[in-house]
């Protein structure tokens, strides 16, 4: 095994995080393969078998944070079902990476805001892999608006269905197939704690996810199923250039202590840790903040 070069790794993260231009993507939630500055979703080190024989479902698993998590899980020995909306090319690349890591991948395309699809995705996962040990609720969307008066009912309902209702739907479908020591991990956001002037409805969903995580952790503790969340700060994913104007994109992440955007790979280990029962057995209802030094009260 080649020795991991820390300096080279950090230099690459800093380079990519600081070279982001004002690029924009024409469609939401965006296609990663169309990005000029490609996110860093994998690192040159091997897994340690921490998730051997586990089965994971990752929503929004085609790109961004979901892609990084799916690949990290595969490196640790888990079989992974990636759930995504419509970005088939991105999903195929992620599946290829999972298989290259020596694991198995299942591609499931559909709208997680639809309860029937969530039930179908879980059913297909169980049919393929026999069980579910890890559920990562990561899919999300955002629609910047300068005023609350600009948020129409359709946008409000859509944002809540994708970001929050999907978590209820996925847990309701997956829970009957999860045993003791399983793990549910939700993707929240720094906006749940700081708010965001342009993302009022998105921030509201992330605050609700925080309450959902803490409440579900209490409800499932007796079943020995842990529920936690990761709250990312500014992470460079297709969602950013597909939703923000060019001036916002080129300054993305520069307000952090590290003066750069974070990369999806920098979150993956937190999701591995929270999924790994031996490492996080006494952790439930908690939040891991990964935001480049944005101090929050949680």
From TrEMBL:
Q: What are this entry's molecular-function GO terms?
A: oxidoreductase activity, acting on CH-OH group of donors
Whether Hydrolase counts among this entry's keywords is no
InterPro entries linked to this entry? NAD(P)-bd_dom_sf (IPR036291), Sc_DH/Rdtase_CS (IPR020904), SDR_fam (IPR002347)
A Pfam family name for this chain?
adh_short_C2
Q: Which SUPFAM superfamilies match?
A: NAD(P)-binding Rossmann-fold domains
Q: What is its EC number?
A: 1.-.-.-
UniProt GO BP: bile acid metabolic process
Keywords, alphabetical: Oxidoreductase
Q: Which family does it belong to?
A: Belongs to the short-chain dehydrogenases/reductases (SDR) family.
Stated name of the protein: General stress protein 39
What is the protein's species of origin?
Aedoeadaptatus ivorii
């Amino acid at each position: 095994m080649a020795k991991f070069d820390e300096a080279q790794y950090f230099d690459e993260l800093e380079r990519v995080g600081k070279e982001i231009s004002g690029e924009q993507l024409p469609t939401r939630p965006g296609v990663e393969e169309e990005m000029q500055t490609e996110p860093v979703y994998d690192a040159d080190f091997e897994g340690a078998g921490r998730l051997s024989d586990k089965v994971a479902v990752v929503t929004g698993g085609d790109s961004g944070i979901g892609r990084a998590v799916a690949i990290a899980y595969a490196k640790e020995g888990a079989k992974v079902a990636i759930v995504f909306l419509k970005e088939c090319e991105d999903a195929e690349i992620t599946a290829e990476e999972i298989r290259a890591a020596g694991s198995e991948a299942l591609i499931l395309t559909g709208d997680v805001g639809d309860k029937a699809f969530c039930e179908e995705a879980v059913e297909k996962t169980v049919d393929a892999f026999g069980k579910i040990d890890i559920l990562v609720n990561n899919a999300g969307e955002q629609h910047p608006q300068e005023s609350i008066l600009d948020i129409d009912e359709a946008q409000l309902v859509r944002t809540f269905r994708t970001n929050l209702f999907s978590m209820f739907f996925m847990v309701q479908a997956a829970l009957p197939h999860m045993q003791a020591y399983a793990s549910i991990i939700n993707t929240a956001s720094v906006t749940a704690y700081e708010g965001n002037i342009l993302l009022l409805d998105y921030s509201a969903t992330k605050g609700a996810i925080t309450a959902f995580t803490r409440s579900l952790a209490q409800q499932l503790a007796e079943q020995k199923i842990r529920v936690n969340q990761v709250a990312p700060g500014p992470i460079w994913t297709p969602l950013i250039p597909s939703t923000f104007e060019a001036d916002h994109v080129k300054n993305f992440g520069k307000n952090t202590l590290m003066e750069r955007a974070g990369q999806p790979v920098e979150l993956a280990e937190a999701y591995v840790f929270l999924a790994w029962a031996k490492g996080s057995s006494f952790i439930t209802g908690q939040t891991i903040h990964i935001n480049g030094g944005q101090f929050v009260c949680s």
